[in-house]
Design brief:
potassium; binds potassium ion; 17% strand; seven-stranded parallel β-sheet; NAD(P)HX epimerase activity; binds ligand LP7C6HRI; alpha/beta; Rossmann fold; NAD(P)H-hydrate epimerase
């Protein structure tokens, strides 16, 4: 049974890797995006119309970087942005700048989500801290109403990564690319129902500063 971690452990390992070891947060974000991008290509989905639904935390930054990787590959992709870009994290602000360089369209039309063939869920990851409401809930309901295949980044948005509980409303994903280690909440019945196939991405974050040898 491979290791699964809590939100607090994920945040602690993240901070240790950045602040003590010295790997920049943006490098971790790029590796998270590349792992998710490769899983999307390997999952062999219909990539005719991809919509990345992103908020302004680092989960959103991961998704905006995935959008750029898809755009460079010649795939029709747009970003449905939730929240105020002026309040984005530094890493997500940088990803928005890069996405702008590649002229990736940003939409606020929920119909674009409903009509997508693949949706990337980059709304909330381990930073989810309260019940999902308002525009965030509207976007998650649109994602779940779509016929599209849905790929969640790190945690299906709306799921508490410690307990697997749905905080108001949560994305039901076909697959989830989760960073570093699986999350204990995704091993629960409800967590599994929302995560779909879970891919664990090695992005350079390890509990003991190195990748543990497979048991
Ligand atoms: N740990 C790793 O290995 C890496 C993780 N990455 C990604 O970063 C996210 C965590 O990012 P963070 O900015 O801490 O939080 P989120 O993006 O998950 O959440 C966004 C933001 O939203 C606010 N918020 C919380 N709950 C609600 C709510 N119910 N309604 C509205 N807004 C809410 C809160 O302020 C949060 O900060 C992790 O999951 C990974 O995807 C790194 O990119 C790579 C390494
Ligand atoms: K997510």
């Amino acid at each position: 049974m491979s290791k699964a971690i809590t939100i607090a452990e994920a945040q602690r390992y993240d901070a240790h890797t950045i602040d003590v070891i010295g790997i920049p947060a943006l490098v971790l974000m790029e590796r998270a995006a590349l792992a998710t991008f490769n899983n999307i290509l390997n999952d062999d989905f219909d990539l005719t119309r991809v919509v990345v639904v992103a908020a302004t935390g680092n989960n959103g930054g991961d998704g905006i970087a995935v959008a750029r990787l898809l755009k460079i590959r010649g795939i029709d992709v747009e970003i449905y942005l939730l929240g105020d870009p002026a309040k984005a994290t530094p890493q997500t602000t940088q990803q928005l700048k890069i996405a702008n360089y590649y002229n990736i369209p940003i939409t606020s039309d929920l119909n674009h989500i409903v009509n997508a063939t693949v949706i990337v869920d980059a709304i909330f990851g381990v930073g989810l801290s309260r019940a999902v409401t308002g525009k965030f809930a509207d976007a998650i309901n649109a994602i779940n109403a779509a016929d599209a295949k849905t790929v969640a980044i790190d945690v299906p948005s709306g799921i508490n990564a410690d307990t697997g509980d749905v905080l108001g409303v949560a994305v039901v994903a076909d697959s989830t690319t989760t960073m570093a280690y699986n999350k204990i909440g995704l091993l629960t019945t409800v967590g599994k129902q929302h995560a779909g196939t879970v891919h664990v991405a090695d992005i350079g974050i390890y509990a003991q500063d190195r990748l543990e040898h497979a048991r």
